[in-house]
Structures are given as structure tokens and as C-alpha cells.
Amino acid sequence: MRSKKKELSPESEAARRLQLFEEALREMLRLLEPATGEMREERDMLSRRGTEFIYRTLTEDVCRQCPKYRECFEKRREKTLEEIASILERAEAKARVDGRMASEVFRKRCVFFQPFMEEMSWLFRMLYQDRRWEKRVKGLHQVMRAQMLSQYLLMRECHRLLSAGKELEGAARRKLQSALLRRGFYLLEGREYKDEGGMINVTLTLGSLAGSRRMDGVLQALQRCYGRSFRSAGGETWVRSGRRTLSFVEEGGFQVIFGVCRRSKAGETVCGDTFSFEAYDRKRAVMLLSDGMGVGEEASRDSRRLIEAFEALLEAGVHEEYALEILHGALLQKEKESCATLDAAVISLQTGTVRLLKAGGTATFIRHQNAVERIGPSGLPPGCLPEQGFDIRSRKLYDGDMIIMLSDGMLDFEAAPGQEARMEDLIRQIRAGSAQRFAEELMRAVPVPAGGRDDDCTVLVAAVWERKPMGTGR
């Protein structure tokens, strides 16, 4: 008797294929893993192998023809090697060889000084260009690996979402079943899991005992059983009659309210800064700010495209850190140079922590209850150099804290002659509790340069509040 081939459900087949893709990407990442000591070899290349190559070539091509060869490379060998090493050390700092880098004593003693320096200059340029190309190739290799890693993490997360969780059984199922029955629903199936942020997700297959009923009864039953507030993942407000499968997500412990104020450079009608506020699945709130190079339409276009691309990756589920790496790799391939900074604040609505990603932007400020913290700028905008890194910092936020993100025009006043006020002082003086009012008051408080506004100015504010239990709320 032939055994029947087991048929997979669409969900099981999707999970199986994602797992295979995930395993293939993992193997490719192993192949791209940098060899041990590779980065050290890159740093030492010019000083060790490069110096030896230049020394051998100079000896064979120039110095052996010199009547003072034995004196320089036998009697005074150590002094000669020290002189060559000294010239190369200065050349590496200046990225070129110049006769003035040699000591006065060496210039007087060397019979073939001019051909010696010309040969060294040619050899140095050849090695220096080789080194630059090698670093560029390694940088692109790192970008490619980062992009592949982001795809691997996305596949792993999709696979986990399809296969994660456990069936509701035993006392937990009976407790939820009883709570639902008292509110007019009967439970057929149930499944729960915790996502990467530690928030509970529940999928229920249930029906209504008497026609359509409001969703509030299901949410009350979940809150009674789990001791936490939930919301419908699909936004439904009614449970229609018949068998229905619905998903519910635990509400985060924090909520975020945004505010914005901006103004263009004097004489310009278009602001080159682009900003964005977004909440993804009510699990994380994201605040983005990009400052395009220059002002006007072109700066606005560059910053807007960068923001839109970053948002699209976040919406697809790519982790913010790897989304930035993917954008960086894509911008490196552009023929036309464009330069736009990117500041991102990603706030977990479950834990109240914030991750600040800074790629060329100016300082970001966090106003706590009794202090103002400045988080300084770091690094270059995405797409500048293959081997560049990005600054990522984490902070814990508490009820009433504010994140203030600025474009560089807002901080120009600090560099004015005789200016003693700092941005921290202005932020500390503002008492507005509303994010929007805070942004407007900060814009008014910043001194305008004597010559008028010479750059675009943007203020973004995110006010973070703890969610209060029903009946006590803010």
C-alpha cells in the first residue's frame, strides 16, 4: 500500500521555503566572514611589506650604481634604513613623496639624490594607489556582507513569525474560554507568542453566541487573563457572526506625541530639510530627519528620497541598523554624488528605550526631568566612503522625557562671536509640556544671526509618556 504524500498548508510551505532561504544566506555569510588578522594586515601593509618592497627596489635600481653604495648599505646601513623609514612615514601622512622630507645630512651625502627621490616617489604612488583600491574593495565587501546579513535577519524573523508560538492549552485555555463565554464568545482555537520586543501576540479562532458583537468583550477577556491591555491587530471593532480568526497585540507601556517647527533660509521658498514621524505596528515610534546638501529644491529632493527609502525598509520589517547599511551600499553605487545626512530616533513603545542612529547629522538632545543631555554628531552622511561606520547609541526614557532633533541651522548661533548661550540653556528654560508648543517655542528662542537666516532650520520633538491604566490616564 502506497503511503500518501503529506500535503503542506500554504503557511507551512511558506515557512519551509523561508527556512531554506535563511539557511542558504547563513552559509553565504560564513563564506564572507573576514579572515583572522585581515584588518591588521591592512593597517601594517605600507610600513612593513611596502617599506621592504621600496627598500629592495631602490637598492637594485638606483643605489647599486652609486659609488657610495658600500658606505650607505654596509657602514651606515642602520642610518640609511632609518632615513628611508622617516621619509615614508612623512609621505604616508601627506599622501605623497617630496624631496624636502629627507634630512639635510642625507641630501648632502646622497650622490644620486634626485633619481633616488624620483624612484621612491613613483614606488610610493604605486603602492599608495594599490592600498586605496584594496581598502575600497574591502569596504564594498563589508557593505555586501551587511546587506546580506540584513536579508538573513529579515528571513529569520519572517520564518519565526510563521512558526513561532504555542497552542493555548490546559488551565490557560480554560481561563480564557470561560472569560470569553461570559462575554458572549466561544473559543475554537488559540495561539500565543512573544515577539522580539517581549510583547505578547495572541491569535484566536472564535465565534459569537448571538450575531455580531463588539470587539470590546474579547479585549476585556484577554486583559483579565493576561493582566495586560491588548488591541486588535487588524483594527476591527466588531466580531461578525460565524467562525473568525483574529489577531491581538499587547499594547506598549509608552506612547509618543510628536511636534515639528521649521523655517527656510532667507530668500528660499523650499526647505532642504525633510522629516518624518511614524509608528510601526504600535511597537516602535520612529522620528527621522535628513538635511540635504545646500538649500532649495535639490537639497529637498536628496533628503526626501533618503527618508522615503529608509521608511520603506523599516515598513518591510528590516531592522533600522541594517536598513541604514543597505542605503549606504546603494548610495555608494550612484554616479552622481548627493549628500544628505540622516538622524533617526527609534523608540520602543514596550520598554521606553530609544536607539539614536546618527549618519552625519548634528547633535540630538534629550530633556529629562532635571537635566538636558547632548548627544553629539558623529561620522559622515551615508554613501560617502565604503569603510565608514555609523554612530548608534541607546538611552532609557522615562515619563515626560523629550527627544529634540535639530538640523544644523539651529545650532549656528553657538559659533557666533561672544555668544555664551548654549542650546541646553534654551531647552532647559522652555516649560511647555506639549511637543508641538515646545518645538515652536524653541524655534523662537534661538537667536537669529546678524545677517539673517543663512540656513534651513528644523526642530523635531518627541514627547514620551507612560500609558496609564484606564480611569487614571493622561
How much of the sequence is in beta strands?
A: 15-25%
Average pLDDT: 78
Describe the largest sheet: 5 strands, antiparallel
Number of helices: 13
Helix/strand-derived category reads alpha+beta
Q: What is the overall silhouette?
A: elongated
Please count the beta strands (DSSP E, at least 2 residues each): 17
Short description:
The protein is α+β, with helices and mostly antiparallel strands and 474 residues long. The chain has 13 helices and 17 strands. It has a five-stranded antiparallel β-sheet with strand order 1-2-3-7-5, covered by helices on one side. Strands 8-17-16-13-14 form a five-stranded antiparallel β-sheet.
Describe the structure.
The chain has 474 residues and is of the alpha+beta class. Helix content is 42%, strand content 22%. The strands form four sheets. The chain has a five-stranded antiparallel sheet with strand order 1-2-3-7-5, covered by helices on one side. The longest helix has 51 residues. The radius of gyration is 31 Å and the shape is elongated. The relative contact order is 0.09. This is Serine/threonine-protein phosphatase. Keywords: Hydrolase. Pfam families: SpoIIE, SpoIIE_N.
Keywords:
single chain; 474 residues; alpha+beta; five-stranded antiparallel β-sheet; 13 helices; disordered C terminus; Serine/threonine-protein phosphatase; PPM-type-like_dom_sf; SpoIIE_N; hydrolase; phosphatase activity
Topology:
Elements (H helix, E strand, L loop, with lengths): L9 H22 L6 H7 L1 H16 L7 H7 L1 H18 L9 H6 L3 H51 L2 E2 L2 H12 L3 E10 L5 E9 L4 E2 L1 H11 L3 E3 L5 E2 L4 E7 L3 E10 L9 E8 L3 E8 L4 H20 L4 H13 L9 E7 L4 E7 L4 E4 L4 E4 L15 E6 L5 E5 L16 H7 L5 H11 L11 E10 L8
Antiparallel strand pairs: 1-2, 2-3, 3-7, 4-6, 5-7, 8-17, 9-10, 10-11, 11-12, 12-15, 13-14, 13-16, 16-17
Helix pairs in contact: 1-7, 3-5, 3-7, 4-5, 7-11, 8-9, 10-11
